[in-house]
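2 proteins. here.
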Amino acid sequence: MIRLIMADDEPFILAGLEHLMDWKGLGIEIVGSYLDGRSALEGILTLEPDIALLDISMPGFSGLELLERIEADNLKTEVIFISGFQEFDYVRSALLHGALDYLVKPVVRTELLKSLSRAKCFSESISSENTESRVPVYAPFFRDHKAPYVLVRSGAPDSESTSLDRLKTFSFLERLRSKIELSRRGFVFRNADDDFILFSGMSRLSTLVYMKECGEEIYRKNSVRICSVISEEFTSILDMENMIIKCREAYSCSYYASFFSLFEYLIPEKEVATSSVEVMKWREMLSAAILSLDEERINDCWSSFITEVASLRESRRDEVVFCFCNCLRLILDKLADSKLIIEEPDLSALMEKGREVKSYLELTELFKKEIFSIHHQLLELAGQKKTKEYLVALEYIEEHYMEQIGLKQIANLVGMNTYYFSAYFKKNTGENFKDYLRNVRLKHAVSLMISTDMSVTEVAQAVGYPDVRTFSDVFQRVYNEKPSAYIKRVRGK
């Protein structure tokens, strides 16, 4: 039997290492576990272990000081360092003094196995394939517990996957392991470096409530979010492999966790066909909103668009990034059709940046910045056009107010998109087109009422109102007086 000791000043790290793999199946006996460097040195000197798993930073003696003592005393113990630091100087010092390897917390099972397999005390034939039992580690649980079973994949969301957060997640899972094993309702295990919890005698909804409570507890204590994906209920160990695959695939939803502020997700029991119809609808509406230069409208459409994209729960992030880039491409094409020239974003560079961000929330912020960059450029462009298209539009209205003219007609006249022209017009006049045209017509109507003997009907028709009732209602709404009363008053009749 290969003899091993471990030392770390965090008890939950030691507990996690003890549960990390089947040590006996590897032919390894843990002969000592220590919380400080001095105790670890005593263990090395008295127990003469073959391997020592040592934290770099501990009270008493540091891991490097222990390695120097082992080297000076020519002891046979081989050292694997584990540390929360991934600094080159630490790694270099460790390896220069003869350390077998240097692993960053939280320790990954496959990486530790590779490090152990390089130890001299292992024969060349030992490998992870033939040293571990082929019987699944969760098999005994099925013998001792009855259906229904529910599988949970738990861990830190991608948006919170810093080294410190992964370490906190590791701590949480170790505490949860003790809590669950004491209750005898579940079993915590690792599969290909993913953390799973197997429950028995609990419905998936009660599991959801339980994991939500656990998640809130760890957030209060450690300020780190735990994302849990909960499988459907099943009845046999034969279903486990499929459930592990389903949970692993659905865990991609952790990409959206911070966006929805929802860190517990039930895997749908049946495949639900998702449609991109709503995404396409809001993409079109967002394009129109940008051309309108209405910031509030842009914000509303953007919010709806990104929510619809997220609701599809795309399993591949590349597809989500492509969807956002495609939306930008549509907007830029519409601007080009409207002959609006702006500085275009580099979509290829954005695609690469989008792939690198850790969460959907970060992705939305990245693209929102580009959306509003376009918006601000259009606002500047609208101001610059004032000396040309703006004056042409006002002149045309003044000359044709008595005709049935509309917004689209004048937008076409100045070569602008209707949405953009509407916003451009309001920016430069302080009024929307409809109100401005009304005021021009009423101004000329008042002039005719004062200077001519025309009837109300004749005045209405002369300023572009074929319906005298509509003219009367508009006039009264603006001047608080009926046109007939106004004529009588100003003409003295």
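next one coming up
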Amino acid sequence: MKKQIRAPFLIVNPKAYIYGEETLELAKICDELAQEYDIDIIFTAQHVDIQKVADNTENIIVTAQHMDGITTGRGMGHILPEGIKAVGAQAVILNHAEHQLTINQLAKSLKRAKELELLTIVCSDTPEETKAIATFSPDVMICEPNSLIGTGTTSDDEYIKATNAAVKSVDKNILVIQAAGVSTGDDVYRVIMEGADGSGGTSGILNAPNRKDKIIEMLDAIQKVKNQE
């Protein structure tokens, strides 16, 4: 059965900053905090680390950073959907700015993910692209201008409102993450109050002096939102 995500939620996306034991250590921190705060945390891992993370956590949503729309058989060097599912992935991110797909590739990958009941988290850049991708009915969309990723500068209010509206105009059940440049609890609070369902980041967490403290700061911001509901 496909995992369900409860909003508001956090995404911790290490990309290729870390691997192996360092990834597992961060995953265990997220797992502990997800239980403590009772807030869903999407945690991405390098493909080679998915099984290790899945086997040693219970509360996070273990997520692959990419997969290809292939079936068993030919596909040398590609990421087989059945493979990530078998080692414990519950979700997959597609079309990140650092691993963009053509529309045809995205459609095939989404089809395969849905066949395997993997949560689909799809990235988009502009409001126009966001609305077009929303028609493919992913479970979650990450809306962020490619130019702001990793800069520490967050999306402006106009962009957040425009992309949130673009998604919800197509399907109000698609969850929206706003995370471009997010690096503080205040950033997380602001984008969720502007209408996002979740937030989080990469460099803001991975480059923090204390990663656990930074994740706690972001979860505290989400808890603040929940307390106001």
